[in-house]
Every structure is written in C-alpha cells, then in structure tokens.
Amino acid sequence: MVNQTNLIDEKNIRLEKLNRIKELGINPYPENYLDRIKTSEAIAIANNINLRDSEDIKKEFKNCIKLAGRLMAFRSHGKLSFGQIQDLDGRMQVAFVKGISKVKDLKENDEIDSYKFIEKILDIGDYIGVEGELFKTHHGEVTLFVKELTFLGKCLNPMPEKFHGITDEEVILRQRYLETLTEKEARDRFILRSNIIKNIREFMWSNDFLEFETPILETKATGAAAKPYFTHNNALDIDLVLRISQELPLKKIIIGGFERIFEIGKAFRNEGIDPSHLPEHTHFEWYVAYWSYKENMDFVEKLIRNIFEKLEISPIIPVKDKDGNISDIDFSKNWERLDFIELLKRDIGIDISKTKTKEELLPLIKKNKIEMGGTANMSYATLIDYLYKKMSRPKIKGPTFLYNYPKILQPLARVNDKDKNMVDQFQLVINGWEIAKGYSELVDPVDQKQRFIEQEKAIKNGDEEAMQGDDDYIQAMEYGMPPISGVGLGIDRLITMICKKDNLRDCVFFPLMKPKTKDENF
Q1: Up-side HSE of residue 380: CA atoms within 13 Å toward CB?
Q2: Which of 272, 401, 444, 482 is in Cβ range 3.0-4.6 Å of 337 for a Cys bridge?
Q3: In the 3-class helix/strand/coil scheme, how is 74-137 assigned residue by residue?
C-alpha cells in the first residue's frame, strides 16, 4: 500500500521547488516550445549522419536540434549527468555538463548555477525542452548533449514508483493517464484505437459515404431494445432520454435524399457492466439506399479486413473463452455463415420457428432442462434472445455471420420475401461477442406502425427492453423510402479484440467508475 504521508511530504517538497523556480525569475509554465522534433526523428538523424565526438561538441555546438518531453530518469556523476526524456514516440538519453549546459532565463550567481538547478530543482516527471547536438556514448547510445534547457512544466505529484508501471487495476481505470505515461504498451494500444477509427472513416469516405451527426438527447428511446438513461431539459421543461441508437434519425436522412451515410458517436444504455458491456459506448452505424442485408454482410467483412491490411496488423488474434482457454481466430480465412434457427435447433433442441408465443416456448425450455431465471416479465422476443445469448452465442468463435431471424426479434427489419415470419437480418459474432448487426430495413410505414404497437404492448407487460415507438419516424416514412440496408457496429468491442484484450474497459480511456468517497480521495 502507498504511504500517503510520504506522498504528501514529497508533494510539499515539489511545491517548494515550484516556488523556488518562480523566485529565480523562470516561468514554470511557459506559453510554448516550438521547432522541436520527435525522439524517433532524432534517432533516425543519428543513424544517418556522422556524429561528432562529445569532446568536439564541448568546444562548439553545431547542427543543434530541440527535443521536449517528460524527464523520466536522472543520474548524476559529479560534473556530468544523464537523463531520459520521453515523448509520445519513446525515450532518449540526454547529457548535462557542468559549465556548458545552461538553463534558459536563469540568472546564475554564487548561490545557484545551471548545473545546480538541473541537479537539485528538476524532478522526475517535469516537462523540459532541451536543445543541443547529438552524439554517441562509449556504449553506443544516441544521446543529446544539452546546450540549453528550458523548463516547461512542474510535476507536483510523485510519479509511479520506479517507473515499473501501475499494477493496481482500479488506479489504472481511474487514472488511465498514469498507465499510458509509464507503459509503452498502453500508449500503443490507444494509438491503435485512434488509427482504427481513422481507418474506418477513410474506408467509408473512399466508398462514397457522407458522415452525419444525430441528436444524443431524444424524446424517446428507440432504434434498439435497451433501457435508457433519463434526463430533463429546463429550457423546454421536457423529459428526455440519452440515445440508445442512431438508427431512426439516420434513416430520416436517407428519406431526405442521401444515399450512403454513417455516424460514429456515443450511445448510452442503462444496463449491466461486464467485460463486453459498458453503459457508454462508441457506436458506429451506416445506411445504404438500394442495398439489402446481403450486400452489407459483404461490406462488413471488407471493412474489417481492410483494418488488418492497411494498419499491417496480424489477422490471427488470440482470444480467451469463458474458462480462460486461449485459441486463435484467423480473420483472413473465410467467414462462416449460419442460419439462426438452425443454430438454436442444434444447441437447445428447439425449433423456435414452430412456436409463436411465450406460452408455447416455455414448456419446451423446461422439457429440454434449460435453466433460465426471470422469465416472468420477458416477452416472447426477449425470451428467444436470452435463449440464444445463454445457449448459443458463447460457443461461437467466429468471425461468424448469423442470418434468418424471427420477425418478432427485430421490429425495424424487412420481412423476408419467402417466409413472412422471418426478417432479413444478420449478426456478426466473434468469440461470443456481437460485433455488428445489420438488416434490410423495413420501409413500409403501415407495417412499421403495427410493429411499434406490438412493442408498446410488451412494455406495458413489464418488458423494459422492448423498443419504444416513434410517431415522428412513421410520419417521415410516409413520405417514401427506397430499399435500404443498415448496420450497427460496436467499435469498442472490435478494437478490444484487435488489441488482444478481454475487457472493453482496457481500451476505453475513461470507463465509468463509481466516484471515490471523500476519505478515499488524496
């Protein structure tokens, strides 16, 4: 356990040093530091030119460069000191020599000189800028011989002990910046997250999609089956919900004449938290006029394959099952496609296409000795969904597309032309996680209105996850819609899998946490 008294004492010492810096006439938080290069660029330069000897540099500096970052290590050897400066690209050694390395804006006197400032006032974690010339030590390490140091920012809290990173899971989740500060793997993980989202946008743009933004505050929680968060707008004096999906507003945009559209943004669902669920997640939806769900299945596969190819990521990802066993998923191989009805028949021994009500299904569940609690308030649709999630989904390794879904499961999907009890829908499942869901959209306003009525009945019967209807959307539909297919993809889940992690929180910088009590805060 961290000794809080020692932390407070060290913080007070650093505060005293901050005041001392100010007394010496140095601004501890300057406006900027321009014309610096990255540590990786400095190392590349060093490997492509003939570097001068340090003894020659002492006589005269030439070919100076500037670096900036945190001081992450420091050791003094009399009149020579070495430090490690860290920026986003990595770390690089810097050397300070008494009588040569100067501190910008410091007025040296008998009490303080530049070298004493560097030795006694700098702390690990401080931001500094250094200007000087590159050379190699006798051990062959590329090093910057510092001509001038500029103080750029004081670190008041002591850094994680010995820079071995943070092992306390709660600290990592509450103070992710400390993990990324001390662990290159963590920095690389969030760089990869950013690059994946960038790649997705570029792929969509290259396929003629336009990006739109839709409201987060809505009057009804619709577009998906989930429990919403409630809030209130004082100006209009109306109750609102945070969106659970972008679906209906995006389809209104299609009605407005656009043909290929997408949105990447937050969605909010007031449900449980576990490794594959977060109450706030990054949701990605797109809609295409004149496509069916079949074209979108192919498009999902191309989009995800493109991530691996363009970012040069190995398509073979190790994953854990619920028992902790590790196996590989190969995204480069053919993606399996399974009939949803046949999948349940195989896993639970029930042909759900032969049932039409909850009362017909429950005895079959009991007969097959399937243990399920909480069925009293479940609608028929929710019961089927829970059966699938309990008995089938955990067994799927993937990447696997499921298709041929009962109409009751998706109030917004188009009815299949050959079987009116089925809808044209698919899900992409990988290692038991639903990564994407798409379907041919229902564009018949009369049919849509009736399905909303059925959902409202389920809500009145206690089903909290049934979908709310939307009269404004029905009105928009009545102006006419072309054939449409849409997809929703969970970016957090996809990224977590690509990053070889098991929990969404590992790849979200600010996962929701219970606030600390007053006594817990330092």
Answers
A1: 18
A2: 401
A3: EEEECCEEEEEEEECCEEEEEEEECCCCEECCCCCCCCCCHHHHHHHCCCCCCEEEEEEEEEEC
Closest CA to 190 of 496, 490, 433: 496
Beta strands in 106-195, from DSSP E residues, in sequence order: 127-136, 142-153
Alpha carbon distance 266, 109 (integer Å): 57
CA atoms of 105 and 114, how far apart (whole Å): 10
Q: How far apart are CA 486 and CA 288, in angstroms?
A: 6
- Select from 276, 300, 242 the least CA-distant residue to 439: 300
Nearby residues of 89 by Cβ (< 8 Å), 6 or more positions away: 38, 39, 40, 41
Instruction: Dump pLDDT digits (tens) for 432-484.
Output: 999 999 999 999 999 999 988 888 887 787 776 677 788 999 999 999 999 99
Q: How far, in Å, CA of 246 to CA of 331, rounded?
A: 28
Distances (CA, A) of 515 to 120, 167, 268, 518: 37, 20, 19, 9
- CA–CA gap between residue 325 and residue 171 (Å, rounded): 27
Q: What pLDDT is stored for residue 110 in this prediction?
A: 87
Q: Check whether 398 has a pLDDT greater than 90.
A: no
How do beta strands 433-440 and 484-490 pair? antiparallel
Instruction: Output helix, strand, coil percentages for the chain, rounded to the nearest 5.
Output: 35, 25, 40
For residues 237, 243, 244, 247, the Cα torsion angle rounded to the nearest 10 degrees is 130
Instruction: Quickly count: other Cβ atoms within 10 Å of residue 515's Cβ.
Output: 8
Q: 3-state class of 491 per DSSP?
A: helix
Return the pLDDT at 171: 86
pLDDT score recorded for residue 186:
94
At 218, which helix (H) or strand (E)? Answer: strand 217-218
Strands 230-233 and 238-242: antiparallel
Beta-sheet pairing, 400-406 with 422-430: antiparallel
53 is written with which tokens? 């000897």
- Going by C-alpha positions, the residue among 111, 106, 121 that lies closest to residue 13 is 121
Q: How many CB atoms lie within 10 A of CB 16?
A: 11
